[in-house]
Design goal:
Helix content: 55-70%
Largest sheet: none
Number of helices: 6
Distance between the termini: 16 Å
Radius of gyration: 15 Å
Strand content: under 5%
Length: 132
């Protein structure tokens, strides 16, 4: 029981950045890795290594996230990468593709008709509610 309580306390202490806390400027790969490393460190473990450039390149090849434009990643790319990292601990990559592909296709390919900010905030606020 005490171990469960400690694990719950640790999860409550995790703060994933909210939309307005993500950088508003376009970033190169090394900068993306720094942002993700800082944001995801509280939920990373030895079983789930931090995001690497190779992982991001593979996610682009698998069409989990669109490719960067002129080698620069946007706030939206970072959000999608955080979703992938977060969900890969509980879902297969195929399941993540099933969830994210319609979202990213509609957002990145069709004039940003979805509001990714609302989706991002909703997912992580629901997560916080479940922990509580």
């Amino acid at each position: 029981m005490e171990r469960t309580r400690a694990a719950c306390d640790q999860l409550r202490a995790v703060h994933l950045p909210r939309w307005n806390e993500l950088p508003d400027i376009e970033l190169y790969m090394d900068q993306v890795l720094l942002v993700l490393g800082g944001a995801l460190a509280p939920i990373s473990s030895e079983e789930a290594p931090m995001v690497t450039a190779t992982m991001i390149n593979n996610y682009v090849k698998m069409k989990l996230t669109p490719p960067p434009e002129k080698k620069k990643y946007t706030k939206e790319h970072i959000m999608v990468l955080m979703f992938i990292y977060y969900f890969k601990n509980i879902l297969s990559i195929g399941d993540i593709q099933s969830i994210l592909n319609p979202l990213t296709d509609r957002y990145f390919a069709n004039g940003k008709e979805l509001n990714l900010e609302k989706i991002y905030e909703e997912v992580f606020s629901l997560e916080k509610g479940q922990i509580d």
